[in-house]
Specification:
This protein is an alpha/beta fold. It folds into two domains: 163 residues, Ribokinase (UDP-N-acetylmuramoyl-L-alanine:D-glutamate ligase, 3-Layer(aba) Sandwich), CATH 3.40.1190; 114 residues, Ribokinase (UDP-N-acetylmuramoyl-L-alanine:D-glutamate ligase). It is 29% helix and 26% strand. It has a nine-stranded mixed sheet, sandwiched between helices. Helix 1 crosses helix 7, helix 7 packs antiparallel against helix 8 and helix 8 packs antiparallel against helix 9. The radius of gyration is 17 Å and the shape is globular.
């Protein structure tokens, strides 16, 4: 059976200053969120043999491409902002890695974290597949020490032309609205998330501000991935883009009131947010 939701991107090991290592990556968090909403979720990734997919991605079919290493990220927070380092897996994910079942996924979420997902996934996706894009990883480069810097998104025109929905955080472009507007003009549906302020939905070239519910933030980890997964599923099911964005805003807002995986969508979150969205509509 083809999956309802397929996330494509490297799962990661996030290394912390105290020496601890935790699972991470957009494909990891988004697929866990999607599994709370749909039944059949898959991940196409590359990771080392020791990566414990059954433990980290329970109930999810993981198609692991062998790699000598698993991609690692280390974040260092300073008074002048975050410094990020990466030690990426050398394996680039290509459409040839897709099985027949994965190729027929209802939703294909392109979720790069370190420029490891070929943009040809978008151009070669079946016409009836919903293609959702979170391009953060296509905006990263790194030097010989692994320190991460911004880079241009060279494949933006070809990816945006096919994507059914594209989601970025304004932080992904360091607040550069001129760049965000350039991409929005090339996209079918382009959403810029603004953390506690909600998001801007660019629909037929027109911006619509969708506010987020005001909540007490405990842990924002994964909120953007939860937003994207919820949005893509809602859109694929035929929901109006503005209503889908409001619903995703609400679900993501609930996630930040709890820590880490406890922030994944609960049935109560989905019911509450569905009711609020329908009431506003």
């Amino acid at each position: 059976m083809p999956p309802d939701y397929l996330a494509i991107g490297h799962v990661t090991e996030d290394v912390w200053r105290n020496g601890s290592v935790t699972p991470g990556g957009t494909a990891w968090f988004a697929s866990l969120a999607a599994r709370r909403i749909v039944d059949r979720v898959s991940v196409l990734t590359a990771a080392a043999e020791h990566y414990d997919a059954e433990k980290f991605l329970p109930g999810i079919h993981v198609h692991r491409i062998p790699s000598p290493t698993t991609t690692q990220f280390e974040n260092i927070y300073t008074p002048h902002g975050r410094i990020q380092y990466t030690r990426p897996s050398p394996v680039r994910l290509e459409p040839a890695h897709l099985t027949d079942a994965l190729r027929r996924a209802k939703i294909m979420h392109l979720a790069p974290v370190c420029d490891e997902v070929s943009p040809t996934f978008a151009t070669e996706a079946p016409t009836d597949t919903f293609v959702g894009v979170t391009p953060q990883g296509w905006l990263r480069r790194w030097d010989e020490t692994g320190r991460v810097y911004a880079k241009p998104w060279d494949a933006a025109p070809q990816v945006l032309a096919r994507a059914d929905a594209t989601v970025i955080s304004i932080d992904d472009v360091a607040g550069d609205w001129r760049l965000a507007l350039t991409w929005a003009a090339q996209a079918r549906l382009f959403i810029v998330t603004l953390s506690a302020e909600g998001c801007i939905v660019f629909l037929e070239g027109r911006p619509h501000h969708i506010p987020a519910p005001q909540v007490e933030e405990v842990d924002p980890t994964g909120a953007g991935d939860i937003f994207a997964a919820t949005l893509f599923i809602s859109l694929q099911r035929g929901q109006n883009p503005l209503e889908a964005a409001a619903f995703a805003n609400c679900v993501a807002a609930q996630s930040v009131t709890r820590r880490r995986l406890a922030g994944l969508p609960t049935p109560e979150d989905l019911e509450r947010c569905s009711t609020i969205t329908l009431r506003k509509a």
